[in-house]
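Anyone up for a design puzzle?
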């Protein structure tokens, strides 16, 4: 990791836990392989967003009556008694596959869903009937439909009604973190969502690295982003101005985590990478590390993303690296977009 291994440590307990979880999932898949289950037998959390609920219903209606299907457990109730399905990622002889790649925050599940969907499409076994907002309906033998449409990645794009803490951290000349949000349990961090944009089209392979610790100054745990964004829609694919969500899931956080810093690396060769310089509140950080969250010094209230995206920023009355940034009057506007749609000028 170009020096990262020498400066930061990975927690052995986390690695063991993730391996155990992966083995458990593989064991479950082996048990289920080739088996069809009644639609009422598998638990799962339903999509809560009304737009996604309507989308799932529309996709299910496109599956013919009696058609064999592989479906994720969280979508089973939409299927009703239409068929006795396989539980995705088991596909068996299913003619249709209905996948929801945004269903789980678990890094192991995220990676498993990505690999399985890519396998089905890249092998040519299945083609895309329709895909949007992280949901994909695939059909066996559908030729010439291996690519996912742009709308499929909407689940990774920020939405105007989302609220977050404004932040302007520039990494190099091309990449910027514009906001963040987090959740806590007691005095510990349990979730972090960061919002990023490419100032211009990115060339090469960029990696986001997050450093987690109980307090600033202690040796942190280093976590290289393994979120859906890094797999399905990595930085080199981002369109200039669109705002992308990168989430650190609860499984990433150790008990006692209260601070998070961020850095960005660009791959320069098969086994080498360089850290981009980090700048926040007009102050340069030579090592490329920028403070995102410090629960000992919390920032003020969140605001809707639509209230400040598309505006230039100026430092609010605060001091030190990571100071809260407030929206200024528009000048030399940059084209921002939320969920694939340009933000109207104020």
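Challenge accepted. My sequence:
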């Amino acid at each position: 990791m170009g020096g990262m291994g020498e400066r930061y440590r990975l927690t052995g307990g986390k690695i063991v836990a993730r391996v155990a979880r992966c083995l458990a999932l593989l064991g479950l898949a082996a048990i289920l392989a080739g088996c069809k289950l009644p639609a009422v037998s598998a638990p799962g959390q339903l999509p809560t967003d009304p737009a996604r609920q309507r989308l799932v219903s529309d996709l299910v209606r496109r599956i013919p009556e009696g058609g064999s299907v592989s479906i994720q457990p969280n979508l089973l109730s939409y299927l009703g008694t239409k068929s006795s399905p396989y539980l995705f990622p088991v596909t068996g002889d299913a003619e249709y596959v209905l996948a929801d790649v945004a269903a789980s925050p678990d890094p192991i599940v995220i990676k498993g869903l990505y690999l399985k969907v890519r396998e089905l499409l890249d092998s040519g076994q299945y083609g895309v009937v329709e895909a949007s907002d992280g949901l994909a309906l695939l059909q066996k033998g559908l030729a010439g439909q291996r690519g996912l449409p742009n709308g499929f990645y909407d689940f990774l794009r920020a939405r105007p009604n989302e609220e977050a803490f404004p932040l302007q951290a520039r990494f190099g000349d091309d990449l910027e973190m514009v906001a963040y949000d987090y959740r806590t349990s007691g005095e510990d961090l349990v979730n972090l969502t960061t919002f990023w944009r490419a100032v211009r089209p990115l060339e090469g392979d960029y990696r986001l690295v997050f450093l987690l610790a109980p307090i600033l100054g202690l040796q942190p745990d280093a976590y290289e982003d393994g979120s859906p964004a890094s797999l399905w829609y990595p930085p080199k694919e981002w369109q200039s101005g669109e705002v992308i969500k990168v989430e650190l899931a609860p499984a990433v956080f150790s008990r006692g985590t209260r601070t998070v810093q961020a850095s960005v690396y660009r791959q320069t060769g098969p086994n080498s990478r360089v850290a981009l310089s980090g700048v926040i509140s007009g102050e340069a950080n030579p090592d490329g590390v920028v403070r995102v969250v410090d629960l000992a010094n919390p920032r003020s209230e969140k605001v809707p993303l639509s209230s400040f995206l598309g505006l230039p920023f100026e430092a609010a009355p605060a001091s030190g690296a990571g100071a809260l940034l407030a929206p200024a009057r528009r000048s030399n506007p940059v084209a921002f977009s939320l969920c694939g749609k340009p933000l109207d000028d104020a």
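A detail worth pointing out: The CA atoms of residues 70 and 91 lie 5 Å apart.
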